[in-house]
Amino acid sequence: MHFKSFNLPLFILLVLTVFSALFLSFWSLRQTKAVISQNTTPMYKLASQLQFDVIVLGSEPEAISSAVAAAETGASVLLLSEEPRVGGLFVMGQMNSLDLRTEPEVMQRGIFERWWRLVGKGSSFDVLRAEAAFQSLLNEAGVVVGLNGEITPVLNAEGNGIESVIFAQPELGQENELFARHYIDGTAEADIAADIGVPFSMGFSSMGLDARMVDTLVFRIDNIDWGALRRGINQRGISYAEVNDRVAWGHFAEDGQSLIKRYQAQEDGIRLRGLNLGLQDDGTVLVNALLIHDIDPFDEVSRAEGRARAEREAIRIIDFLKEEGVPGFTAASFGGVAQSLYIRETRHMETLCKLTVDDVLGNKVTANDVAAGGYPLDVQVLTRNDTGFVYGVPDIYGVELCVAVPTDTTNLWIVGKAAGYDPLAASSARVVPFGMALGEAVGIAAVQALQSGSSPVEYASDTTEISRLRSTLQQRGAYLPTVKDRAPTGPYQHKNFEAYKVMRSRALALGGYSNEPKLDEKVKSIGYVYLLSNVAKRFAGDEFLGQSLIAAHSDQSETLSSDKALEITKDVLCLMDYCDDDAVTQLMSPKALELSPEVTRGQIYELATSVAGLLANR
Predict the structure, then answer these.
(1) Distances from the Cα of 138 to the Cαs of 92, 106, 405, 510, in angstroms?
(2) Count of beta carbons in the 10 Å neighbourhood of residue 355
(3) Are the beta carbons of 109 and 478 closer than 8 angstroms?
(4) How many Cβ atoms sit within 10 Å of the Cβ of residue 380?
(5) Long-range pairs for 270-275 at CB < 8 Å and ≥24 separation?
(6) ∠603-605-606 over CA atoms, to 5°?
């Protein structure tokens, strides 16, 4: 084997150069973070400029992505927020775990990927580094920023758009009326859109369920020995938990017994789920694991009360984990809580089009898409009686710009988790990397609409403009998947698949992580009773019908036979005033002839779909 001659002085010089660059980069980041730590309520006087091309309202990551994209496309951009810091959920909420889709390829690119590189490109990140990265992107793009003020939108004379926004900063003793041609609502709950009257549904109400995903408060643990934690988890294996250099997660189960499930909260309405632990640069650890029920997300007193319950419980949880001997927790201590609650779900705004669960699990990609996603439909806990649901995992799906456009406004766009998604689609689309990708598209679209003199509705409806937007996005490094027909997830060739989709459309059928709804599996009679009860409620808002059916068949624990299925179906029809044999025959024929002696899940979905159709026309 032969080697080229080795130049030692040149090598030493190269090493010193690289080391110096790394040191200066690290020193600069530490200096930036030090400034943030000392001044967490920066405010900017805005009197010198009152007119902008685009005003972005809110400082969530999705809003920042829109603002940066708009400024980089040539617009004068102002970002206003009532929060004292930029970064929203990632900074104020300290939610430092990333919900990513990187297989079979990285779907999060563009501005998100630029930010991601700045924070280390891992599955978790340091919160102060994240804040510095957001500020850097805003500064480099030339976005003017105003924080820690009260935002009040002013409607135009026609009442169908925003004329201006009043930004009041009492601590500075000033109030400005600020004007733009287009506005982007990037607040966490689409507060500005709601303030001006854009219609919306709340939580799962559009699916007939009065519930929304539960809230969380991130808390911090000090003095964890991460090395010991990592060694302990690796020794016990993945049945205990999983870990890498920045993240640990799991139920910490030994001998099949989950440590987390054994924990009994003392505070009412508080639950502990599997731990998500994220290591910070200073050695502290942030924990995403507390579930808080019964918060009114729009009531300050209710939020404060829920926050207090969670903070008290967090202290007990740390003591419990220490007592149970979790590796690395010997000296662990409570280090505080995030500045803001993590409110998972509130409004779903009505927009020009809607991303649906069928779009997501149908792997729908079109020539009009401006962003792509692939995260599982992961519905966190909805009530005190469930543990959450996974409705399926898409291969990939696209989203069109129209989900960001309210139908009856002339100059407003919406980005973030409250955009035009149905509740199940939102359980995937709500994740920040996807939201930042759509936010980037909206920022560019707003500027291009200004250039062509279009309203958001006109622009989003113009395929020529969308083609221009897609070209711009691709030039900027965004990911837009190849347009082609793709098979839906799950057993799409099964004869009961369409009925399964109907039940899934009201959150009544699951595919899980394996996309397997088990359509040929036998079911219990009581399972069919509860399904019909939920069909009555979610398709027709009729709770009485379902309650009556359950009262009549509450003891049905046997495997469902075809005769029993017909009996239960006839009972529900009678409760619907279709109590005659002709109605039963009409409803189930020829389906009744296809029932196996022991009825399958797919077959009860067929029967339930027929009942739902009758309910809709009752």
Answers:
(1) 17, 24, 24, 41
(2) 26
(3) yes
(4) 19
(5) 270/309, 270/310, 270/313, 271/214, 271/381, 271/384, 272/313, 272/317, 273/381, 273/387, 273/388, 274/249, 274/250, 275/241, 275/248, 275/249, 275/250, 275/251
(6) 65
- Dihedral angle sign, alpha carbons of residues 303, 306, 312, 316: negative
Are 66 and 443 in contact by the 8 Å Cβ rule? The answer is yes
Looking at CATH, the fold of the domain delimited by 39-205+344-489 is given as: FAD/NAD(P)-binding domain (3.50.50)
The owner of tokens 């989900």 is: 403
Task: Kindly report the length of the chain.
Answer: 618
**How many C-beta neighbours within 10 Å does residue 578 have?**
17
379 membership: H or E segment, kind and range: strand 378-379
User: How far is 56 from 215, CA to CA, in rounded Å?
Assistant: 26
- Using CA atoms, how far apart are residues 283 and 143, in angstroms rounded to an integer? 33
Helix (H, G, I), strand (E, B) or coil at 165: strand
Integer angstrom CA distances of residue 418 from 129, 189, 429, 581: 26, 6, 10, 47
Q: For residue range 314-364, what is the model confidence (pLDDT) as tens digits?
A: 999 999 999 999 999 999 999 999 999 999 999 999 999 999 999 999 999
* Bridge pairing between strands 257-258 and 270-272: unpaired
Q: How far apart are CA 79 and CA 81, in angstroms?
A: 7
Amino acid occupying residue 432 = V
For residue 495, what are the contacts with CB-CB under 8 A and spacing of at least 6? Answer: 602
Structure tokens that stand for 408 in this block? 């009856």
Query: Other C-beta atoms within 10 Å of 230: how many?
Result: 17
Measure the N-to-C terminal CA separation of the chain; round to a whole number of Å: 85
Tens of pLDDT, residue by residue over 70-129, are: 999 999 999 999 999 999 999 999 999 898 888 888 888 999 999 999 999 988 999 999
Torsion 535-536-540-543 (CA) sign: negative
Contact 424, 357 (CB under 8 A): yes
Q: Answer for the pair 78, 146: CB distance below 8 angstroms, yes or no.
A: yes
**Stated pTM of the model:** 0.90
- Residue 338 CA to residue 307 CA, distance in Å, equals 10
Measured CA to CA, the distance from residue 37 to residue 421 in angstroms comes to: 36
Structural tokens at position 138: 């805003």
